[in-house]
Design brief:
14% strand; elongated; 367 residues; Rossmann fold; 12 strands; 10 helices; two-stranded antiparallel sheet; alpha/beta
Length: 367
Amino acid sequence: MINGLSLFSNVGIGELFLNDCGINIVVANELEDDRVKFYKNVYPNCEMISGDINKHYDEIIEKAKKKKCKFLMATPPCQGMSVAGKRDYSDSRNTLIIPVLNAIRDLDPDYVLIENVPQLLKLRINYNGKYDTVEKIIENEFGDIYHINKNKIINAQDYGVPQNRKRAIILLNKKNKWEFPKKNDKIITVRDTIGDLPSVEAIIDGNTNYFEGNDKKIEECKKIHKWHVPKEHSIRHVEIMQHTPTGHSAFENEFYYPKKMDGTRVKGYNTTYKRMEWDKPAPTITMANGVISSQCNVHPGRKKKDGTYSDARVLTIYEIMRLFTIPDDWKIPDWATDNFIRKVIGEGVPPLLIYKIVSNLDGDNNE
């Protein structure tokens, strides 16, 4: 086993399968208390250092050295650069790549994996008196010590994850070339992943039986998995999605389009109020995966005899877990709320993707 350090750990989603490929994360750091608490619930044997990485940096590195960490995984916040966010390049969170670079220098690990949105590569920062892109700085600072992967943009859908999720992943390896593994021959779709689960409708204003018989369906869904429970939505949103076909946006509807309370048409893009498609991977699952009006979050649905479509709701947490390749026995603490779980998943990394990449440390299965 190789001991590892995890920075910006969130709740450890990307780490779920690391043990299976010989990596044992023994030291971790996360800023937010609720995420720290969740992380400890999943990884009770890992030494979690809670708080601002800049304030606790020396402590983190000291403990990682004591535990002989030779693997470093870092997933710094990306909201300042994300396409789904404001793309504010002056966002202070964008500079959090700097302590990651310092950790590579000070810890001197054998292997490094940095994950972020593709925009990270072109983000310009000041490091050691030089102003350049993150990609160039890493090459200039560490290129003489490490093999660095050439292709740094990856799509999770190419590696068995049923989600169209493009990311930048930078790999550093002292011993061998470490590139992305060969792509899968088959793309896994939404139908492949959640098509076996029964239809269930949204909860309306706290009423599980607004749609007749739905309360019984919800109880059956809970037997499948504790978190296979539909989210509560307004009848206004549910009604327009009932009249929206699979793969389409409610903005395309002639009458059942998004409206304000006074009936005025809502302005927006056709990527919102939109159902997923059955026979493609899911779109990128974001932090806003619990909102019908956000980007392509609605269940694909099935056409009913009356011409409307079932499952006029966002995905359940369990459905999202499947699309994220999170195992069914993931240790979600009892205190975690629906919104909190959705947020940390949306900010996470599909664990199957990390597993595939880290399993290729020796470079034998490169593209």
